[in-house]
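Cast an eye over this sequence plus tokens and explain the fold to me:
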Amino acid sequence: MAFSDKNITIVKASLQYAASFCRAVASVARERKYLATLKGFGLEATKKFVGMIEANDYAQFYAIDGGRVVGWCDIVPKTQEGFRHVGVLGMGVLKSYRGKGLGKALMAEALRHAKKVNSLEIVELDVFESNLNAFKLYESFGFLVEGRKIRARKIDGIYDNVIIMARQL
């Protein structure tokens, strides 16, 4: 998908962007609302993850603005026998870039790749119930609620439920 808004492009993940991806994840994590991690991951761990994505041609796409990762979406297949037909979706968009359609563009690319290239049949995800915008985005792509973990997360004294969603490809 060729997304273009103020020179933003959608590109396939590569080690070239690993450091920028690492900073983007850390930025969203520090908001303490949207990701399971509150700090992000170290650069070496990020390089290892992106290298694994590249080596296996898994679905991971970045929104790039001026050479900087400002959003991402990935779908990584499960590795356990009997579950390899299922991929797990993760995504995030930097705060100042939200509401511009980047999440939609990234997800469309990742879902297309996961189906056509990785032959996945199901994509699943967890979303915090307080993240209404993400929930609506997932619903718009046909994800259905499969379950709920009540008071699954407690940050700064505030509980949040986790909604489990999935979509057949």
Q: What stands out?
A: The chain has one domain: 8-168. The chain has a mean pLDDT of 95.
